[in-house]
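Researcher: We're reviewing a set of sequences before deciding which ones to prioritize for further study. For each one, I'd like a predicted 3D structure that I can look through quickly. This is FAD-dependent monooxygenase. If possible, include the structure in token form so it fits the rest of the review sheet.
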Amino acid sequence: MREEASPDALRDRRVLISGASVAGPALAHWLAAHGCAVTIVEKAPALRQGGFAVDFRGAAHREVLRRMGLWDAVRERQTHMGTQHFIGPDGREQASLPPEFMSGDVEIFRGDLSEIFHEHTKDRVEYVFGDSLATLEQTPDEVHVTFERGAPRTFDLVVGADGLHSTVRRLVFGDEARHLRFLNHYVAVYDAPNHLGLDRTARWFNAPGRAVGLAHYGGDPAKALVTMVFAEQDPGYARLGPERQREILRERYAGLGWEVPRALKALEETEDLYFDAMAQVRLDRFSEGRVVLLGDAGYGATMGGLGTGLALVCAYVLAGELATRPGHRAAFAAYEEQIRAYALGCQKNADSAGPMLAPATDRRIRLRNLTYRVLQLGPLSALFSRLSVRAAEAIELKDYPLPVSGARSSGVRD
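Model: Here's the predicted structure for FAD-dependent monooxygenase, in token form for your review sheet.
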């Protein structure tokens, strides 16, 4: 059933979106096309390059990209990642995972995806880089916002699309410690020399409670990406400084074989270390007054939670509900009704990411490897493929009205 647009529901609405990675620009695409005056504020000084490889999988992800007109652009810049292999202490392969399980239908670097979305929206959306929200005050009719650098401004709606450690969520819903569910694992990612000569493939090595992955996703053949995942009960490591975090990694991985010594040497030389807790955002509601959360800010799940595709789908739903409801309260309620179960299903998909990547004991490592081998045998391989997309496809997309033409244009300021 096709939804009918609510007359002038979004025309000339002033909407502030915090976050210029994926969720924010995806929402901005739809809102600007419906006639909104959209501003995106991003604390980074420019678009972030590189980063994780993220994937889209299943019919819902593909369909939203197609409706945005970006499916072909994403496919053109995909990683074409191949099989990923799990290596034993003797250096021999113990198990492997096919590309579709780890990389979905299409995989792309987050930085490349952000660039595509930015190019697609920059002439219709105002981008403000190098700034962040400082305070936020709601009235019955609007939202007054002050910024760390820029002058105060007023908006009709504010959207927090600013990630797991969302500033908007903190300002409206309180300290993040109340909303983050720690999953007892940490992840660290950084660049290293490609000593193994990997070509669009990955090697994973395990010791109890620890994993090290070396991967090459394309691009510079001399560079590889190191991913470290380790189990830990203390939830406070993410708040430590980078030098202490490097020290923790050295301590955890000291004495391990395979390529781990080289990976630790590269850790000392890298200038771009990503280190964070594996955690999930849990909230009783996704909106408060004229403020609403989108993507990781509202229901993030770190690794394994299909977060990029989830954000894309939920941006489509949020914009569609705003376009078809008589006001933001009804739209936010309908948005939450549409996506809550979907988001929780994707989060549940992430519950096992840490234990599967870094099993706690030698026995569990062997059982994990055996499971991967068995699931790729004969008729079970089809089940394996279905499992990889089940959570991503657990939503029925409404047929929202097509956006109007002649979307407003705005410049970019720093």
